[in-house]
Structures are given as structure tokens and as C-alpha cells.
């Protein structure tokens, strides 16, 4: 357990050598999302494997008020500092965790040797019109959630929705530092059912990869947005290659 800003966070460690591989799950998921990947990754790479529960998830304390990406970055910093993983890190981020990764590598680029972004949320996706569309959908979903019994998961979803618009208008202006290599894994389906939204998501991934020579996009065929569950082989291979590249 790691203490930061008055709350406790659960970090889970499989000991090994550097580079340490840090796995960060998407929105609504905790460290158990990676339970099938961790033992295979540890065996294949010999690296230290770190997973954790973000505030409000799993065994970590809840934090009242709207969710803030800056707080999530601070929590990750606190955990990695206590674990001594402040250099040669391979950061693996799924979905929402791509936003944490983007802010993290801007603040602490010297900590991260490379990243694998698994169908991750990237800045170019968040145009004003897209944010407005998602906010409208969120409002309907949140109204339904508020009618249901309050649980840790529903409270966390409501916290993220509360700050969605302002947070993503700011995120749209953020860029990934050229010094940190990144592999983007694209799903077949994307998180969206509508063709326009799905294409915008794919375009954001392509634009991200094209912005620097040390970035690439690979496609996980026959996968939903949950690539780590549908195609763990693709995720494991990408992490293994990034770990070898940065060793």
C-alpha cells in the first residue's frame, strides 16, 4: 500500500529485473484486468511487473469529487517512487489510462524508456464536436447510474463524467514527447459502434504514430476494445519487443 495525498493505493509487484513494466488498466477496471497477462509477461521477460488500482478502484481508497488526471499522475508517481521504478520503465496503458500516460511522460519523461498504448485514448480524438457528443451520451448514462444503488464502480464513473468536458478540451492540446518511443495497438472494433466516431479514433492513432519516427501502429485483428482480453498474444508481443528495444 502506498500513501499519497491522504489516501492509500494498492500496488502489486512481481519482482524481476529492469526494465520494469507498469500495466495501467482502462476506465472502470482495476489491476485484476491484467491477471492473465502478468504471469506470462513475467516469465517471458524476467522484468519486474507492476500493476495498481487507481484511486476509487480495487483495493485503493476512494477520493471524493471529480476525477482529475493530474491526481492520477501524482498517484502513479508516488507508487513508482516507493517501488524505486523511476527509470527504464515500460509503461503499458489501456484506453483511459492513455491519458494518464500522456501527462505522465510529459511530466517525467526521464522515467519512461518506452510505452505500449493499447487502444488508448489519445489527444487528437477530442475535437470540440466529439466532446459535445460524448458529453451528451454521458449525461444520459449518468442519469441512469444515479438511480441505481451507489457502488464503488458507479461512484468512480460519475466522478470521471463530472469533469469530462473541461478535462478533454485541455487534453486535446497536449502532445507526446518525441524522446519517448511508443507502440500503439489498434483494435479492430474501437470503443465506438458508430462509423464516424470509430474512424476519428483510428485517425487519432494514425496521426499520433506519424508524428515521430519512434512510434508505430499495429492492429490486433479480431479484437474488441478489450484487446488484452481478446488478443493477449498481440499485447504480450508488443510489450516484449518494447522491453528488448529499451534494455
Automatic annotation (TrEMBL):
The lineage of its organism: Bacteria, Bacillati, Actinomycetota, Actinomycetes, Pseudonocardiales. Transmembrane segments: none annotated. InterPro entries: AB_hydrolase_1, AB_hydrolase_fold, AB_hydrolase_sf. GO terms for molecular function: hydrolase activity. This is Pimeloyl-ACP methyl ester carboxylesterase. Keywords: Hydrolase. Residues 21-237 form the AB hydrolase-1 domain. It comes from Amycolatopsis saalfeldensis. Coiled coil: none annotated. Pfam families: Abhydrolase_6. One of its GO terms (cellular component) is membrane. Gene3D superfamilies: alpha/beta hydrolase.
Amino acid at each position: 500500500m502506498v500513501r499519497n495525498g491522504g489516501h492509500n493505493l494498492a500496488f502489486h509487484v512481481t519482482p524481476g529485473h529492469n526494465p520494469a513494466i507498469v500495466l495501467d488498466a482502462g476506465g472502470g477496471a482495476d489491476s485484476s484486468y491484467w491477471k492473465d497477462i502478468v504471469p506470462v509477461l513475467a516469465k517471458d521477460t524476467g522484468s519486474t511487473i507492476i500493476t495498481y488500482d487507481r484511486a476509487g478502484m480495487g483495493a485503493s481508497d476512494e477520493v471524493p469529487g471529480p476525477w482529475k488526471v493530474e491526481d492520477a499522475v501524482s498517484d502513479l508517481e508516488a507508487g513508482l517512487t516507493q517501488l524505486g521504478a523511476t527509470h527504464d520503465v515500460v509503461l503499458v496503458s489501456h484506453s483511459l489510462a492513455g491519458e494518464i500516460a500522456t501527462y505522465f511522460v510529459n511530466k517525467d519523461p526521464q522515467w519512461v524508456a518506452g510505452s505500449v498504448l493499447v487502444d488508448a485514448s489519445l489527444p487528437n480524438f477530442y475535437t470540440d464536436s466529439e466532446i459535445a457528443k460524448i458529453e451528451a451520451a454521458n449525461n444520459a448514462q449518468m442519469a441512469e447510474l444515479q438511480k441505481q444503488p451507489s457502488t464503488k464502480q458507479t461512484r468512480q464513473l460519475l466522478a470521471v463524467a463530472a469533469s469530462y468536458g473541461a478535462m478533454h478540451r485541455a487534453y486535446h492540446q497536449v502532445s507526446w514527447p518525441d524522446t519517448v518511443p511508443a507502440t500503439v495497438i489498434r483494435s479492430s472494433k474501437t470503443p465506438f459502434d458508430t462509423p464516424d466516431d470509430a474512424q476519428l479514433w483510428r485517425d487519432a492513432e494514425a496521426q499520433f504514430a506519424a508524428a515521430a519516427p519512434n512510434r508505430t501502429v499495429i492492429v490486433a485483428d479480431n479484437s474488441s476494445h478489450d484487446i488484452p482480453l481478446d488478443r493477449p498474444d498481440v499485447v504480450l508481443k508488443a510489450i516484449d519487443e518494447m522491453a528488448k528495444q529499451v534494455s
